[in-house]
Amino acid sequence: MPVAASAIYFLNLRGDVLINRLYRDDVGGNMVDAFRMHIMQTKELGTCPVRQIGGCSFFYMRISNVYIVIVVSSNANVACAFKFVVEAVALFKSYFGGAFDEDAIRNNFVLIYELLDEIMDFGYPQNLSPEILKLYITQEGVRSPFSSKPSDKPVPNATLQVTGAVGWRREGLVYKKNEVFLDIVESVNLLMSSKGSVLRCDVTGKILMKCFLSGMPDLKLGLNDKIGLEKESQLKSRPTKSGKTIELDDVTFHQCVNLTRFNSEKTVSFVPPDGEFELMKYRITEGVNLPFRVLPTIKELGRTRMEVNVKVKSVFGAKMFALGVVIKIPVPKQTAKTSFQVTSGRAKYNAAIDCLEVWEKSGYNTVEWVRYITKAGSYEVRC
Amino acid sequence: MFPQFGATAETLSKASTMVFRIGTDAHLYDDPDDVSIAPLLDSKFDSEKCEALKRLLAQIAQGFDVSNFFPQVVKNVASQSLEVKKLVYLYLLHYAEKRPNEALLSINCFQKDLGDPNPLVRAWALRTMAGIRLHVIAPLVLVAVGKCARDPSVYVRKCAANALPKLHDLRQEEHTSAVEEIVGILLNDHSPGVVGAAAAAFASVCPYNLSLIGRNYRKLCEILPDVEEWGQIVLIGILLRYVIARHGLVKESIMLSLHCTESSHSEKDGSDVDFRLLKVPIDMSGTCDSEFVNMVSKCYIESPDEYLSRSSYTNRVSFELNGTHFTSKTNDDVKILLYCTSPLLWSNNSAVVLSAAGVHWVMAPKEDIKRIVKPLLFILRSSNASKYVVLCNIQVFAKAMPSLFAPYYEDLFICSSDSYQIKGLKLEILSSIATDSSISSIFKEFQDYIRDPDRRFAADTIAAIGLCAQRLPNMAYSCVDGLLALTKEDFLTKDFGSGDQEAGVLIQAIMSIKSIIKQDPPSHEKVIIQLVSSLDSIKVPAARAMIIWMVGEYSSLGEIIPRMLTTVLKYLAWCFTSEALETKLQILNTASKVLLCATGEDLWTFKKVFSYLVELAECDLNYDVRDRARLLKKLPSCNLGSQGPEEGTNGLNEKNVLHVVAKCIFGRQTREVKAESNNYRFYLPGSLSQIVLHAAPGYEPLPKPCSLPLDDLNVPEGTHAVEKGPDYSGTDDHGTSSGPLDEESASDYDSQHSITGSSGSGRSDDNEFTSEENDNADPLIQISDVGNASENQNGVSQSSPANLGELMSNRALESWLEEQPGSSNPGISEQSQVCKSSARISIRDVGRQVKPKSYSLLDPANGNGLKVDYSFSSEISSISPLLVCIEVFFKNCSSETIMEITLVDEESTRALDSADQAAAVNESSMKSYDNVPTLVPMEEIPSLEPGQTTRRLLQVRFHHHLLPLKLALFCNGKKLPIKLRPDIGYFVKPLPMDVEAFTDEESHLPGMFEYTRSCTFTDHIGELNKESGDGLLIKDKFLAICESLALKMLSNANLCLVSVDMPIAANLDDASGLRLRFSCEILSSLIPCLITITVQGKCCDPLNLFIKVNCEETVFGLNLMNRIVNFLVEPALF
């Protein structure tokens, strides 16, 4: 029950086809018209990501100003299709160096075609790891005249990489300086009711790793969670609670982590891919200290005016500080004019905001190569 | 400041920008045709070709048809530059199906690339070749895939696995077994990457062939965590199906929770005891809705047809699962599957988590299911779209087993960024997992939701509150209070006229109240009173109708309601005229209900109000209301007493009947519409069908428990079968004691042949047998000791790498090619073990018996009495080698003379189109033959008398050796379209050669150019039976077989019989080892084509034939082989 996508379309917001790639011949070419007619031009757009029209199923996602549509004619694993789109976009981003939007697609359509050919075969998703794909899908354009034998140079390399036993790491890497960088990025999420009680509060963290190591190293990561290795205390999941152990509620690991060993021994061991990757994600719900306290008050001044007062108070230590804190205040659709009074920072009115969120970013360095970053959590306060 | 932050991503992207020349193709995309593309394609510089191809690609991307460049693009497939090659592949894949003939031109190039030392090139070639998906090249692709499945490179093997579904998709039955065999090989691969792709192939090629999984079950389980994530998803599904088919459901799992209680009554053995112990705590805590679960599990297993037949019965057929269908959690296969899938719950890929959760859901013992909860909740944090999918699945889990998710209700609270669908799902889940302890905080949430600006969502929330109250009766009072307050509040806001949305909320609120009251009407009497009293303020018709309905339904409930009825009815009668349609109807209903139940002093008032209402209604504008009024006027007349004059005559009897009817219509409580979930159908977790809630095409339920018999698994692996082969042929009837007899008969046989052989004139000049009339009736047999034919065979294969040298770079492939000969073809290797030596004979009289088969071109019925038959002639055209000679027989079956018969080409213009050339013709030769017409004009038949037959020789050039040629037949001035079907067997001419030349030539065409197939042959049986029945001269069985085989070959193809090898040492009954060689060359290109047929089996039984074709033109060779197999299998006509 794999995806078995029959076709993939990239559409812009007007519905023009940017890229179309048919993998199977069981859907007609007019499928994209059906999508435009029955989904894009109706209010349904953006509500339900799975739609069935005339025997075909459409799975679609909007990414910046592009719709990516997967057309499927038979039963398929939907979760798999969406995961594929997400991963494919991440892959494109890493190729383009940043944004994935209509312009980027225009600029790189050949590359996208080549990638689509590689990452999906007859509708079945294939390896999407950018580290590996970059080794042999290179849009080098026209080869310069001085490298007269084009097939000689890149090929032997690619052979090794593609055929290696470990799918995500090529053999024979050598670095003068073997380095590992570890970023622990955590974000605090909060859902607060209108009465000021915390409904839900958790920290989701991810460990980003950047490896420049020679050979085929086998790494082991110790965590100070309850079930994990208590003895290794220099790697802390939460700096605020040093010394104590933390229970990790949920974890997910990168493909390279040996899950069987984690299951039996509770150690995170892995052969890392070369370069940057996300090693694991986790979630903590217990013992979360909120970095901010947000106190909103709303006063209605007559029938046409409203006053919103948001007080944000930081509760973290004096040595740390937050960068780029954004506060979004939703206002009724009919809002005509706003005026601001801010004690610090800037404010602007943007009519298209629909929720109150506080974005915060703070960072601190502890060890040379391990960083803890708390980042971009979403605070949602109902009022 | 922390400059390092975010640097990682940026540096990487910067680096990639430098390396990959990102973002330079936009001008090509925007104006793809501002430069003329054609000259660029023919340019000698790769850079210009690239640009042209990119421009074409841009047009494809935007949906323009640029297939007219096909021939030019295909030429570039031979380019050395990988870049160009890749772009050409992209183009080819897009248009190959539209232009099959030109696409075929690229095949030889792919064949060459398949031998490239670079695995990337091999893999891409294979992928593109398989992606072209033309029926014609399917056999070729199959051969290539078979080869690549044994490639040393993991990547190529993976591509081979990926090519299998493409092959399967062409639906060519004859390849199925071969494809399945390759799937088996790849599933057994030691590299996890290949296994993942093989699993996908298995799922699409042969999902029912679970015995294939059985062989490697353990290994597949163990390799599962290392398989690529996409492969994991497929593999998990396959393993689950296998375990269910093999062992059935797990007794301790949730799927059988209801069954356990049922079956435990019947069970009487010792296991009963602990079984109950296990069961009790679950029942006590009431963790799962067993009926619901039962239905879910039933849905998982039954196919859509079964579901339909089940739901058509009024009584549900009970779930037939007897004891044999259970297995226990202690089963090793179950254990290992659960053990290997549980780490996957931590996977980064949400789809993998979902699949693993699905396995645990179906297979895991109830106490272990909870481990799927947290991972499922965690993947709720991925993209919005995935969130929706995950929630759809959680919904079923939570309904079946609310206790699983009950403690985590907070995770399902709504965020402002959720879409409407997600909100709805979350509400539904929340209302099904609410418990007495969590309900208070859930209700607090709900209160927030009700104030949501999205009123649709608010209405849904109110519905959810109703559901919660039904699930938790303790909460009913507070729910109803809250809802009542809401109806009043909403009434206040409604004056602002916020429209339909607001009305929807109100209606939903009343609906929820109604459903709560239904649970326990007596305790909610006050609620009804409050609602009725607010009737005046509620303006929404649907809401009013519902309240009025409640009045009628609960009119006799409690103390207060009956007392207020008169007032209410009067009020309703007063406002009747201003009501909307549905309210009017409801008022009429209510009035009659009240009237029916009324007793005592109120009766008179009710009667008056009722007749007033009926009168009003009878003149209503709406016919529905008028009809209702007329009906009601009749029905409750009994309670109205004798009113009209017409009533009196009917007497009491009818009144009673009417009363009963009225009671039935308006009478007591409408029957509970119970468990609407019975109409639900559930689908396997993770499937599309589960999300769209109907069986999507290709949806497969779980296999029937224990449907996979044990014997299937005991089938030995391929190697065993091969080892058994010779065994079987050696010891069949005679047993071991027949050794001496065999020897004797063999020598007998030997001498007999040598006698006849010596009298022969040799075997060199029998090549022209087709044209030469030979009067010698006796077969001329010459025995020449050719030593060990099988050795020869192996020698050829082993020397192949060296001979391949000029065609492919063999360094990288050497090891790969070496392991291949023999083992890939069990038939030949087997045979080589059996026959120790063989004799070579020649058959001389065959040519005389050859009768080319005749086909009908025109039926007398269609041709006004003209019958046209044709047969392929072995003559060779003197005009051009591209022409095939065909003998055409015209016969006049009518009673009149037919005049001026001639045959012409349908579209003579097409002959000039070089593009329509057969693929068998290579490019250079193609040009020189351009001027050859499709049909050499036939000599006209001026007139044909009735009953007369005339023969004409037609010289035709077929454009393609598979597609029929359209011709037009003119007779009597009329045009009749006819189709001439080509026979590839006559696209060749005999190529006389001796055996040495044959084997030498054969050794030059190994590997890629060699194809084998097997088939059965039965012609000889009739021949043998006929002779034994006649009792005359009993011919040697072997000779009879040879003759019938050779005859069959020669009458269906223009071949030259090179040699016939006979086994000597084998017993007389065993024809194994008989080998016939034929040679020919392709008419158009003069490329030789060698055919070897090896026989296996007993003389009197159907024989297994192994046909081997060696030909440089791969497409042609394959098609020729297929043709040969086809006619060999055809039964002979006597």
From TrEMBL, chain A:
<keyword id="KW-0472">Membrane</keyword>
<keyword id="KW-1003">Cell membrane</keyword>
<feature type="domain" description="MHD">
    <location>
        <begin position="177"/>
        <end position="383"/>
    </location>
</feature>
<keyword id="KW-0168">Coated pit</keyword>
<dbReference type="InterPro" id="IPR043512">
    <property type="entry name" value="Mu2_C"/>
</dbReference>
<dbReference type="InterPro" id="IPR036168">
    <property type="entry name" value="AP2_Mu_C_sf"/>
</dbReference>
<dbReference type="InterPro" id="IPR001392">
    <property type="entry name" value="Clathrin_mu"/>
</dbReference>
<keyword id="KW-0653">Protein transport</keyword>
<dbReference type="GO" id="GO:0005905">
    <property type="term" value="C:clathrin-coated pit"/>
</dbReference>
<dbReference type="GO" id="GO:0006897">
    <property type="term" value="P:endocytosis"/>
</dbReference>
<dbReference type="InterPro" id="IPR028565">
    <property type="entry name" value="MHD"/>
</dbReference>
<keyword id="KW-0813">Transport</keyword>
<comment type="similarity">
    <text>Belongs to the adaptor complexes medium subunit family.</text>
</comment>
<dbReference type="GO" id="GO:0005886">
    <property type="term" value="C:plasma membrane"/>
</dbReference>
<protein>
    <submittedName>
        <fullName>Clathrin adaptor complexes medium subunit family protein isoform 5</fullName>
    </submittedName>
</protein>
<dbReference type="InterPro" id="IPR043532">
    <property type="entry name" value="AP2_Mu_N"/>
</dbReference>
<dbReference type="GO" id="GO:0006886">
    <property type="term" value="P:intracellular protein transport"/>
</dbReference>
<dbReference type="InterPro" id="IPR018240">
    <property type="entry name" value="Clathrin_mu_CS"/>
</dbReference>
<dbReference type="Pfam" id="PF00928">
    <property type="entry name" value="Adap_comp_sub"/>
</dbReference>
<dbReference type="InterPro" id="IPR011012">
    <property type="entry name" value="Longin-like_dom_sf"/>
</dbReference>
<dbReference type="InterPro" id="IPR050431">
    <property type="entry name" value="Adaptor_comp_med_subunit"/>
</dbReference>
<keyword id="KW-0254">Endocytosis</keyword>
From TrEMBL, chain B:
<keyword id="KW-0813">Transport</keyword>
<comment type="function">
    <text>Subunit of non-clathrin- and clathrin-associated adaptor protein complex 3 (AP-3) that plays a role in protein sorting in the late-Golgi/trans-Golgi network (TGN) and/or endosomes. The AP complexes mediate both the recruitment of clathrin to membranes and the recognition of sorting signals within the cytosolic tails of transmembrane cargo molecules. AP-3 appears to be involved in the sorting of a subset of transmembrane proteins targeted to lysosomes and lysosome-related organelles.</text>
</comment>
<dbReference type="Pfam" id="PF14796">
    <property type="entry name" value="AP3B1_C"/>
</dbReference>
<dbReference type="GO" id="GO:0030123">
    <property type="term" value="C:AP-3 adaptor complex"/>
</dbReference>
<dbReference type="Pfam" id="PF24080">
    <property type="entry name" value="AP3B1_C_2"/>
</dbReference>
<feature type="compositionally biased region" description="Polar residues">
    <location>
        <begin position="748"/>
        <end position="762"/>
    </location>
</feature>
<dbReference type="InterPro" id="IPR011989">
    <property type="entry name" value="ARM-like"/>
</dbReference>
<dbReference type="InterPro" id="IPR002553">
    <property type="entry name" value="Clathrin/coatomer_adapt-like_N"/>
</dbReference>
<dbReference type="InterPro" id="IPR056314">
    <property type="entry name" value="AP3B1/2_C"/>
</dbReference>
<keyword id="KW-0653">Protein transport</keyword>
<keyword id="KW-0968">Cytoplasmic vesicle</keyword>
<feature type="compositionally biased region" description="Basic and acidic residues">
    <location>
        <begin position="720"/>
        <end position="735"/>
    </location>
</feature>
<feature type="region of interest" description="Disordered">
    <location>
        <begin position="710"/>
        <end position="774"/>
    </location>
</feature>
<dbReference type="GO" id="GO:0005794">
    <property type="term" value="C:Golgi apparatus"/>
</dbReference>
<dbReference type="Pfam" id="PF01602">
    <property type="entry name" value="Adaptin_N"/>
</dbReference>
<protein>
    <recommendedName>
        <fullName>AP-3 complex subunit beta</fullName>
    </recommendedName>
</protein>
<dbReference type="InterPro" id="IPR029390">
    <property type="entry name" value="AP3B_C"/>
</dbReference>
<dbReference type="InterPro" id="IPR026739">
    <property type="entry name" value="AP_beta"/>
</dbReference>
<dbReference type="InterPro" id="IPR016024">
    <property type="entry name" value="ARM-type_fold"/>
</dbReference>
<feature type="domain" description="AP-3 complex subunit beta C-terminal">
    <location>
        <begin position="809"/>
        <end position="963"/>
    </location>
</feature>
<dbReference type="InterPro" id="IPR026740">
    <property type="entry name" value="AP3_beta"/>
</dbReference>
<keyword id="KW-0597">Phosphoprotein</keyword>
